[in-house]
From TrEMBL:
Gene3D superfamilies: 3.30.2130.30, Vaccinia Virus protein VP39
InterPro entries per the UniProt record, alphabetical: DNA_methylase_N6_adenine_CS, RlmKL-like_Mtase, RlmKL-like_Mtase_CS, RlmL_1st, SAM-dependent_MTases_sf, THUMP_dom
Protein name: Ribosomal RNA large subunit methyltransferase L
Lineage top rank: taxon: Bacteria
Xref: SMART domains: THUMP (SM00981)
Gene Ontology MF, one: 23S rRNA (guanine(2445)-N(2))-methyltransferase activity
PROSITE patterns the record matches: N6_MTASE, THUMP, UPF0020
Pfam families: RlmL_1st (PF22020), THUMP (PF02926), UPF0020 (PF01170)
Annotated EC: 2.1.1.173
Lineage, broadest ranks: Bacteria, Pseudomonadati, Bacteroidota, Flavobacteriia, Flavobacteriales
Keywords for the protein's UniProt record, in alphabetical order: Methyltransferase, RNA-binding, Transferase
Keyword Transferase: yes
Keyword flag RNA-binding: yes
Organism expressing this protein natively: Chryseobacterium aquaeductus
Length: 389
């Protein structure tokens, strides 16, 4: 592998491509290209380590190592059997294969994965007289197979476990928001750690913790113990240690407040456990409050939250979204508020016109990320046209 000019593909969620692209540019990526749910770029080995450690909206970071066209299964296997797998792994290392297949010619993704596994094992058996083992849970080396019609791309997964697994979560809420999505929402909302932040329906605390990490400029993977690239043959331990130290040296103090409310005591216990795991007890405050009974007490204030979804948690109160709108109007003047909802009629129920609407996905749920600008007194909501992005 050329360690100076590595082609890199970074996976993300739909709607976060622009946010991720900006992150990658700031981190020093070259030839940054936005794709559907991904960003392509180039960089050296140190840059690959850096984005794994720092990029907040990256789900997985892949390094393509072979690309070819295959028109039948025999040609596919033959090409894979001839590939020099021992450049990238030793026979005594375990491996696993993730696959994405979009092809009428090769419609069965599991079968194509098995054929790739056979080719790798047969290559080592033929060359060394022994075979590497498959390990699906915690492999030493992870490959990614992507087939688009006839085009086959084989990549090394440099991350291992998906990068939303930050390492601080100990407790799950009933509908926890993914850490990568949470960070993307905060960046779309313009949160930069200046001012104060409120999540009025905080659940198990993911938005609060991600907001604190942005406010203090903590690297996204500060709490993570292992990356797949640490098992690669060209792993440079000293280089990675230097990159981590440089990144940690940038951590800054935060002088605002980050506050979470929830009406469910069990959720607050879960949030406190996660906040303690992230060592954020002195930065984040959570308390039992019904948002609809609160008034603004932080100035200036950015509010971002994830109300309960009908599809995942039943909402018995038909007026739930109307109450959100009423609370915005009566209790939170001069506030910028964002919420995410899979109820595409939520804006009508809230009764206020959102100044921005951004299409995102929370897992497989299509959602809208809605911005509301509240002004004091008789000033009406900004009369911006609905904007579908």
């Amino acid at each position: 592998m050329d360690t100076e000019n590595i082609k890199i593909q970074i996976k993300t969620f739909f709607g976060l491509e622009t946010v991720l692209g900006e992150e990658i540019k700031k981190l020093g990526g070259r030839n940054v290209e936005l794709k559907n749910r991904a960003v392509n770029c180039e960089g050296d080995l140190g840059f690959l380590y850096k984005i794994n450690y720092s990029a907040r909206t990256a789900l997985k970071i892949l390094v393509p190592i072979d690309e070819f066209k295959a028109y039948n299964e025999t040609k596919y296997y033959d090409r894979l059997f001839k590939f020099e797998w021992d450049q990238f792994m030793d026979v005594n290392q375990t491996f696993a294969i993730d696959s994405t297949v979009n092809s009428e010619r090769f419609s069965h993704s599991q079968f194509m994965t098995f054929k790739m596994k056979d080719a790798i094992v047969d290559y080592f058996q033929n060359k060394y007289g022994t075979r590497p083992s498959i390990e699906t849970k915690s492999p030493d080396i992870k490959f990614h197979l992507h087939i688009d019609r006839e085009l086959v791309t084989i990549s090394l997964d440099s991350s291992g476990d998906a990068l939303f697994k930050r390492g601080y979560r100990r407790e799950q809420g009933e509908a926890p928001i993914n850490e990568v999505l949470a960070s993307g929402m905060l960046q779309l909302a313009g949160w930069d750690g200046k001012g104060n932040f409120l999540d009025p329906m905080c659940g198990s605390g993911t938005l609060l913790i991600e907001a604190a990490m942005i406010a203090m400029d903590l690297p996204a993977q500060l709490y993570r113990r292992r990356f797949a690239f640490q098992n690669w043959k060209n792993y440079d331990e000293d280089l990675f240690a230097t990159i981590k130290q440089h990144r940690v040296d940038r951590i800054r103090e935060f002088h605002g407040k980050i506050v979470g409310y929830d009406i469910d005591g069990r959720m607050l216990d879960a949030a406190r456990t996660n906040i303690e795991s992230a060592e954020m007890e002195e930065v984040i405050e959570v308390r039992r409050e019904n948002f609809f009974d609160t008034k603004k007490d932080l100035f200036p204030l950015l509010m971002v939250f994830n109300p309960p979804y009908d599809e995942r948690i039943s909402i018995n109160d038909d007026d739930f979204y109307k109450k959100i709108g009423d609370t915005f109007k009566t209790s939170y003047p001069n506030t910028l508020a964002w919420l995410i909802s899979s109820d595409l009629d939520a804006p009508k129920k809230i009764g206020l016109r959102p100044s921005r609407k951004i299409k995102l996905f929370n897992g497989k749920l299509e959602t809208r990320f809605l911005q509301y600008e509240m002004y004091e007194g008789t000033k009406k909501l900004h009369k911006l046209e609905n904007k579908e992005e």
